Amino acid sequence: MAKVLNIMSHKGGTGKTTTAVNLAYGLAQKGLKGLCIDLDEQGNMTSILLQLKDQYPSSDVQEFLEHCKTHSQQGQAHASLCGLKDYIQKDRIRCTIYDVLMKRRTIQECIHPTPYENLDIVPYSPDILDAENRLQATMATFCLQDALQEIDDAYDFIILDNHPAENSITYNAVMAAHKEGDLHLLPIKVDRGGLEGIVRTLHLIYTLRDEKRNQLHSQIRLLVTMKNRNQEDSQWDMALHQAFPEEILSSTIRYQAKPVVYASLHKKVLLEKPDTNVARDYQKAVDEVYTLLQENGHVNAH
Questions:
Q1: Cα 204 from chain centroid?
Q2: CA distances (Å), 33 to each of 38, 51, 59, 110, in order?
Q3: For the chain, is the Cβ count within 10 Å smaller at the N or the C terminus?
Q4: How many CB atoms lie within 10 A of CB 65?
Q5: Beta strands in 34-136 (DSSP E)
Q6: What pLDDT digit, counting tens, does each position of 44-64 carry?
């Protein structure tokens, strides 16, 4: 039975996607079979794990202009918009999390392999906010949970990467990580925005726990990320470990600009170059989560 790891923070810039992809990669390297689900409209997890380029090739410029010409009867501005939309559409990933949430396709149909061993992905969709609006209108909070039940025995773990907002999709993500042994992992940067964001995130999870009694049996763990080498960050790190002794990982992720920027620019996972401080920190976090999975679900490497 797959363990669901819900990576969530209501504050952007806390290392949420970086945590998600490194955790997925690290657990897969231990022999566990994993599935990543990209619920973030920015699609950074999808870009990294499918190694998508940020830029369209300049050789496609003429093709884009040809698309514009096909709509020339509609006026230049509208024709250009339609032409750009047509060009982008031809390169879009088919079968995404949007199709799953809208029940247009099964989740099995939307699983894509990645270049990494033991790791698959259900990619993001730029239309995911449309799915959010539709789910909100119907008060649907169990769509993702229902979909994951279809593949419960196919994977050892499933990682959800969320948009930094509170909406119907994040409600779905919380309810999808509902079983005993599932985990809500909340990256927290020890600055004003990070602390405020973690309050909102914890409040959401606790509120849904109260509303859905006997339906949420998962654990919560905080993970301090992007910790700078100064007194303020060190004191807040220690304070959080003191205040949340049962709900925080002992690992702390130090901020190290050069490898983080390199990984971002080249669509790489930090753990692919394990000899940096930030990679060593993430490896400790992977080991800690792996131990939690074993203790709470007897997960065994294949």
A1: 18
A2: 17, 19, 38, 17
A3: C
A4: 12
A5: 34-39, 112-113, 119-122
A6: 999 999 988 766 777 778 887
Q: How far apart are CA 38 and CA 43, in angstroms?
A: 7
Q: What's the CA gap between 69 and 155, in Å, rounded? A: 47
**H/E run at residue 136:** helix 128-138
In sequence order, the β-bridge partners of residue 123 are none
**Residue 94 binned pLDDT confidence (cut-offs 50, 70, 90):** confident
Q: Work out whether strand 219-227 and strand 183-189 pair parallel, antiparallel, or are unpaired.
A: parallel
Residue 66 neighbours by CB under 8 Å, 6+ apart? 83
From first CA to last CA, the distance across the chain in angstroms is 14
In angstroms, the CA 151 to CA 106 distance is 10
Binning the chain into helix, strand and coil, the percentages to the nearest 5 are 50, 15, 35
Query: 3-51+111-296 domain in CATH 3.40.50.300?
Result: yes
CB-count burial class (<10 Å; 0-12, 13-18, 19+) for 115: exposed
- Identity of the residue numbered 54: D
Reading the block at residue 300, the tokens are: 């065994």
Ordered by start, the domain boundaries in the chain are 3-51+111-296
Question: Which pTM was predicted?
Answer: 0.90
Rounded Cα–Cα distance for residues 122 and 125 (Å): 10
**Structural tokens at position 292:** 């939690």
How many CA atoms does the CB half-sphere of 160 hold within 13 Å? 31
- Complete DSSP assignment for 193-239: HHHHHHHHHHHHHHHHHHHTTTT---EEEEEEEEE-SSHHHHHHHHH
pLDDT tens-digit map of 150-166: 999 999 999 999 999 88
Exposed / middle / buried, residue 151 (Cβ in 10 Å: 0-12, 13-18, 19+): middle
* pLDDT level of residue 65 (50, 70, 90 thresholds): confident
Nearest to 107 by CA among 149, 139, 62: 149
